[in-house]
Amino acid sequence: MQMIRRTLLSTCVAAMAAASAGAVLGQTKEVKVGYALAVNSHYGAAAQAWADAVEKGTNGAYKFKQFPASALGGERELIEGLQLGTVEAAIVSTGAISNFVPDVGVVDIPFLFRDTQHARAVLDGAFGQELLAKFSKRGLVALAWGEQGFRHLSNNKHAVNGVADLKGLKIRVTENPVHITAFRTLGASPTPMSWPEVIGALQQGTIDGQENPISVLASAKLWQVQKHLTLTAHVYAPMALLVSPSFWGSLNDSQKAAFTQGAKSGAIASRVFVDTVEKKGVEEAKSHGMQVVEKVDQAAFRTALEPAYKEYAKKFGQKTLDTIANAK
Ligand code: PAF
User: Fold this and answer.
1) Is residue 10 part of a domain?
2) Residue by residue, what is the 3-state secondary structure of the chain?
3) pTM of the entire predicted model
């Protein structure tokens, strides 16, 4: 009897270990990678490039299994899964990361980056790489910065031509203190919500709008649930390619190099995807009947955000904000 119990126990322990540290398929180990959007999105492009590079770089020792469309839960659950070691890899937006690595919140400050090139240079440079290193203190391993694009505003109530039109609009924001402060300061009613709930909430009218880059708008076909789009470009949205520390600890140096190099390839693939989708996404939204306001007075938005900038300077330090702003 004791023998049977012991055998059962060791079978369970072996199964749990396989589930948490990457299942072993013959000689190949499976790497679960989760993300919020569909396979044919910038997330899917990043995951596929990462997977291909790792498979090649480890001579087939590791194979990715993709879990798109929040199949493993929202971004918060994914990050918790990495910390617990139940998920090996994930690609997540900074919308969710700030609650785990608060210093990352600095990149979520509205109108911080002048344009895409500025954002990429900062994230690929010393500042962005130091930020990636900070994840380890929070039980996460961050390998590269991918990209979603600049976030824009959509809603079902009316065209937003300027700051005044935001008054009272119930806008879903990520569960991110920097985003929440920004929309509250602009006079909207920010409603933090996990992404998997957003489409239903827009359909039911419990929120009026949301804000996300064109890459997300196109992937989620937001024109099906939103009438108005304003190209506010109010904040740049990176995404991070992460692995679980327990999984990372199981790799040797050359495998770690393959995962890191692969993550960089994934980040590049997301940027290439975003460059393409940004060119045609707005036209697609229009062709599906969305009313698009193509330009807003960004200086007026910045002025309205002055009280928020004071809060951000207190939180992250004016010197840090200046370092980013002055980067070429
Ligand atoms: O708005 C968000 O929560 C994120 O941008 C999303 C859509 C999950 C993509 O990472």
Assistant:
1) no
2) CHHHHHHHHHHHHHHHHHHHCCCEECCEEEEEEECCCCCCCHHHHHHHHHHHHHHHHCCCCEEEEEECCCCCCCHHHHHHHHHHCCCCEEEEEHHHHCCCCHHHHHHHCCCCCCCHHHHHHHHHCHHHHHHHHHHHHHCCEEEEEEEEEEEEEEECCCCCCCHHHHCCCEEEECCCHHHHHHHHHCCCEEEECCHHHHHHHHHHCCCCEEEEEHHHHHHCCHHHCCCEEEEEEEEEEEEEEEECHHHHHCCCHHHHHHHHHHHHHHHHHHHHHHHHHHHHHHHHHHHCCCEEECCCCHHHHHHHCHHHHHHHHHHHCHHHHHHHHHCC
3) 0.92
